[in-house]
C-alpha cells in the first residue's frame, strides 16, 4: 500500500485506529491479510477514508461484527478493511412513532437493550446478536427465526444513510413509516454485502415488547412427521412468531433428545400465548407428537442462542455451512435427502430450517474424512438437490480450498446484467468488496 495513503488514513482516523502489519491478523479473510485496517469514528471519517482509498485506487471491504464475513468468494486482494464498530450510537428514538435512527456499528444486543428501556424492540433476531452489528445485518439481509411472523430487514427498514465508493453521502427514505411514493432506493443496499456503498446510519420500524414470550419444543419420532406438523401449524389458527424444524443432529446441539423437533415461538398478550401453547399440543398430537415442553426466560433464550449458533456449535469442528432456499412444503424432504448425501460420503451433518419461509441451514461436520474433495463433493450434491426442487443454494462458509472448487453463489441468470449496471453506476471503479458478490461483482 502506498505510504502516502497510510499517512492519509492515519490522519483521518487517528494513529490508534489504523492497523497495519501483524496487527491486521484478526481481519484475515479467506487467507488474505488486509494491507490496512481503518476504524473511523464518524460518518465523515468513513467518507474521508473512502475518498482517500478511491484516489489511490485501493479496494475497501466494510466490516461490522465479522459474523457474516465468511460469505463471499475469496478476495483476490485485500486493501483497506473498514471497521464500523465505533459508529455505535442510538441517534434518535421516537417511541410514539415506533421508529429509531441508529449508527450502523451498534450491535443488535446493545440496540435491543437501549430500546427495551422504553418497552420496544427491533424485531430482528440474527445469530450472534452480541457481535452482529446493525449495518452488517442489513448488508447481509440476515434474519433469525422470528422472520416467520415479523419479516426480514427489508420489511423493517425506513431510511438509510450510505457513503459511496467516492466518499459521497447519500440518504434515502425518511424517518417516518409513511414515506412519499417512488423508488425505494434504500432496499438496493439490503443484502448487497457492501458492494454498492457503506451503510453508516439506518432508520427502522420498532414494535412494543410482547408481554409474554414462550418457546414450545415439540419432539417427533421422524423428520417427516415433524415436517407434516409444521405444515399443520401453518394452516391452522395459530400465529407463531417462529417455526423452526430441526433434525436429529441439530436436536443434539440444542440439548434435546429425539429424531426431530419443531421449535415454535409464541409471543403477545399472556392469555393469547397460553392458549396457543395449549393449542399446539392439541393440534399436533395426531401428527405423531412424542412430547411438548414450554420454555420461558433463560431456558428459552439459551435454546434460541444454540439454534442461532448451529453453524459453529453443532460439531467440534465445522467443515462447511450451506443455506438453501426452497418452498416451505419441500423443507422436510430436502433436509432428509441432504442428510443422506452427507451420510453416504461418510460425513456428519446437522440440518435446521425456518420452516415457514423455506430457508434451510445445512452444517457439515469437519475432522476425520472431511478433506477438501469430500467437502466439495457434498456441497455440489447438495446444490444439485436444491436446484432440482427449483430452489437456490449459498455456501455460507467453507475452507479456502473448497471455495476455489465450489461456487459460493448460484448463477443469477439474466438478472446479473442489471446487477452489474447498478454496480457500475454506484461503484464505477469496482473498489467496494470487489469480486466477492454474485457473478464476481
Under the CATH scheme, which architecture of the largest domain would be assigned?
2-Layer Sandwich
The helix content, as a percent range, equals: 25-40%
Distance between the termini: 23 Å
CATH class of the largest domain: Alpha Beta
Strand content: 15-25%
Spatial shape:
globular
Query: pLDDT average, as an integer?
Result: 95
- Under CATH, the topology of the largest domain can be stated as Uridine Diphospho-n-acetylenolpyruvylglucosamine Reductase, domain 3
Helix run count? 15
Task: Summarize the main sheet.
Answer: 8 strands, antiparallel
State the secondary-structure class. Answer: alpha+beta
Could you say how many structural domains there are in total? 3
Written description of the protein model:
It is built from 15 helices and 19 strands. With 441 residues, it is α+β, with helices and mostly antiparallel strands. It folds into 3 domains: 1-209, Uridine Diphospho-n-acetylenolpyruvylglucosamine Reductase, domain 3; 212-308, Alpha-Beta Plaits (2-Layer Sandwich), CATH 3.30.70; 310-403, EIF_2_alpha (Alpha-Beta Plaits), CATH 3.30.70.1130. Strand 5 and strand 6 form a beta hairpin. Helix 1 packs antiparallel against helix 2 and helix 7 packs antiparallel against helix 12. The radius of gyration is 22 Å and the shape is globular.
Amino acid at each position: 500500500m502506498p505510504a502516502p495513503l497510510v499517512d492519509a488514513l492515519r490522519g483521518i482516523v487517528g494513529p490508534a485506529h489504523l492497523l497495519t502489519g501483524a496487527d491486521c491478523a484478526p481481519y484475515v479473510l479467506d487467507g488474505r491479510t488486509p494491507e490496512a485496517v481503518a476504524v473511523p469514528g464518524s460518518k465523515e471519517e468513513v467518507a474521508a477514508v473512502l475518498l482517500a482509498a478511491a484516489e489511490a485506487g485501493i479496494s475497501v471491504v466494510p466490516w461490522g461484527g465479522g459474523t457474516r464475513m465468511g460469505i463471499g468468494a475469496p478476495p483476490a486482494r485485500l486493501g483497506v478493511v473498514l471497521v464500523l464498530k465505533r459508529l455505535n450510537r442510538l441517534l434518535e428514538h421516537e417511541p410514539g412513532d415506533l421508529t429509531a435512527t441508529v449508527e450502523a456499528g451498534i450491535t443488535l444486543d446493545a440496540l435491543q437493550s437501549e430500546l427495551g428501556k422504553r418497552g420496544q424492540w427491533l424485531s430482528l433476531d440474527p445469530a450472534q446478536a452480541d457481535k452482529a452489528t446493525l449495518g452488517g445485518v442489513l448488508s447481509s439481509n440476515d434474519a433469525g427465526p422470528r422472520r416467520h411472523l415479523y419479516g426480514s430487514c427489508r420489511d423493517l427498514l425506513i431510511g438509510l444513510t450510505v457513503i459511496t465508493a467516492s466518499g459521497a453521502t447519500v440518504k434515502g427514505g425518511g424517518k417516518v413509516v409513511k414515506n412519499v411514493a417512488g423508488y425505494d432506493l434504500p432496499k438496493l443496499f439490503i443484502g448487497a454485502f457492501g458492494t454498492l456503498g457503506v451503510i453508516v446510519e439506518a432508520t427502522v420500524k420498532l414494535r412494543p415488547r410482547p408481554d409474554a414470550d414462550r418457546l414450545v419444543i415439540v419432539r417427533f419420532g421422524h423428520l417427516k412427521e415433524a415436517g407434516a406438523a409444521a405444515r399443520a401449524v401453518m394452516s391452522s389458527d395459530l400465529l407463531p412468531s417462529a417455526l423452526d424444524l430441526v433434525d436429529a443432529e441439530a436436536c443434539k446441539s440444542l440439548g434435546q433428545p429425539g429424531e426431530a423437533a419443531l421449535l415454535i415461538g409464541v409471543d403477545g398478550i399472556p392469555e393469547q400465548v397460553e392458549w396457543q401453547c395449549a393449542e399446539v399440543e392439541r393440534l399436533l398430537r395426531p401428527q405423531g407428537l412424542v412430547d411438548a415442553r414450554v420454555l420461558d426466560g433463560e431456558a428459552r433464550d439459551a435454546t434460541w442462542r444454540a439454534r442461532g449458533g448451529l453453524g459453529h456449535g453443532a460439531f467440534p469442528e465445522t467443515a462447511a455451512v450451506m443455506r438453501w432456499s426452497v418452498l416451505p412444503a419441500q423443507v422436510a424432504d430436502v433436509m432428509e435427502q441432504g442428510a443422506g448425501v452427507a451420510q453416504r460420503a461418510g460425513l456428519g451433518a446437522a440440518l435446521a430450517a425456518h420452516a415457514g419461509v423455506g430457508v434451510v441451514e445445512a452444517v457439515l461436520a469437519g475432522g476425520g474424512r472431511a478433506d477438501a474433495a469430500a467437502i466439495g463433493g457434498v456441497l455440489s450434491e447438495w446444490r444439485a438437490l436444491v436446484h432440482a426442487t427449483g430452489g437456490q443454494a449459498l455456501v455460507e462458509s467453507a475452507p479456502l480450498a473448497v471455495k476455489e472448487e465450489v461456487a459460493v453463489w448460484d448463477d443469477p441468470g439474466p438478472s446479473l446484467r442489471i446487477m452489474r449496471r447498478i454496480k457500475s453506476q454506484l461503484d464505477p471503479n469496482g473498489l467496494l468488496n470487489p469480486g466477492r458478490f454474485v457473478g464476481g461483482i
